[in-house]
């Protein structure tokens, strides 16, 4: 296996939950990690502090993935080199039944979850292609595969992420760049705390909710050199919910 080129990892929405757990694992694998956050500066600084306490390197990158200028700035090569591992994790929910979703609720979710993923990927790919090495992992959702009433906008965005992942993977596979997705089920984070109740686990074959670390471990593998022959796939991390 050829030597890994110099560069960094970028995790969007990395101030907490799955993003924070992923950043910690990538840093443990030796990547300088860019910690992107939109508003939770305290959480992002805490992630950086944890990485540095364990001997890793991390930098703070404030920006909104729904903003094209922010994405261009966050992905631009810097002192830590080009972004060679991109984890498109930042996400947004605006839940309601379909007749009650207004245009803003629809567009906000699409802009963050799908368009943000596209723009970050578009910005990072030229550098990956030149390096002939790249790992892109897009965080989709089991809702993109399995209906969940009240989340039509979220489901559309996450299903779109899966379709986008497959197509880009086929476009760049010959240049040493892999593009994959993970589709988490019900994971215990602040992102899902408003929908968590004691009965939800009963619908999951594993009879429990997942942890951010369990999702991050799958992202870590897909971002690794050992996953060089895995591309265009979606790995569900849902305790059997979509089985």
Describe this entry's structure for a reader.
With 243 residues, the protein is α/β, with parallel strands linked by helices. The protein has one domain (8-237): Rossmann fold (3-Layer(aba) Sandwich). Helices cover 39% and strands 16% of the residues. Helix 1 crosses helix 6 (212-222) and helix 3 (68-75) packs parallel to helix 4. The radius of gyration is 17 Å and the shape is globular. The mean pLDDT is 95.
Q: If classified by CATH, what would the architecture be? A: 3-Layer(aba) Sandwich
CATH fold group: Rossmann fold
Strand pairing plus helix content: what structural class?
alpha/beta
Overall mean pLDDT score?
A: 95
Q: How much of the residues is beta strand, in percent? A: 15-25%
Biggest pleated sheet: 7 strands, parallel
Key terms for this structure?
243 residues, alpha/beta, Rossmann fold, seven-stranded parallel beta sheet, 7 strands, 16% strand, globular
Quick structural summary:
Strand 4 (83-88), helix 4 (103-131) and strand 5 form a beta-alpha-beta unit.
Layout of SSEs?
Layout: E1 8-11, H1 17-28, E2 33-37, H2 41-53, E3 58-62, H3 68-75, E4 83-88, H4 103-131, E5 134-139, H5 152-172, E6 177-184, H6 212-222, E7 234-237
Parallel strand pairs: 1-2, 1-4, 2-3, 4-5, 5-6, 6-7
């Amino acid at each position: 296996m050829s030597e890994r080129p110099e560069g960094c990892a970028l995790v969007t929405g990395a101030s907490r939950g799955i993003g924070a757990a992923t950043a910690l694992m990538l840093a443990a694998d030796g990547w300088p990690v860019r910690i992107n956050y939109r508003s939770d500066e305290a959480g992002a600084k805490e992630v950086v502090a944890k990485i540095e306490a364990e001997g890793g390197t991390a930098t703070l990158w404030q920006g909104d993935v729904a903003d094209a200028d922010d994405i261009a700035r966050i992905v631009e090569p810097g002192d830590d080199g080009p972004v060679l591992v991109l984890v498109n994790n930042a996400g947004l929910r605006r839940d309601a039944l379909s007749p009650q979703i207004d245009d803003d609720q629809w567009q906000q979710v699409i802009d963050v979850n799908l368009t943000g993923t596209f723009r970050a990927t578009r910005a990072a790919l030229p550098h990956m292609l030149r390096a002939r090495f790249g790992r892109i992992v897009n965080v989709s959702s089991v809702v993109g595969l399995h209906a969940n009433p009240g989340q039509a906008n979220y489901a559309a965005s996450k299903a779109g992420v899966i379709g986008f992942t497959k197509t880009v993977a086929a476009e760049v596979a010959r240049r040493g760049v892999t593009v994959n997705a993970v589709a988490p089920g019900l994971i215990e984070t602040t992102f899902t705390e408003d929908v968590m109740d004691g009965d939800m686990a009963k619908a999951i074959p594993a009879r429990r909710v997942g942890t951010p670390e369990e999702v991050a471990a799958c992202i870590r593998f897909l971002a690794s050199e050992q996953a060089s022959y895995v591309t265009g796939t979606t790995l569900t991390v849902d305790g059997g919910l979509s089985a």
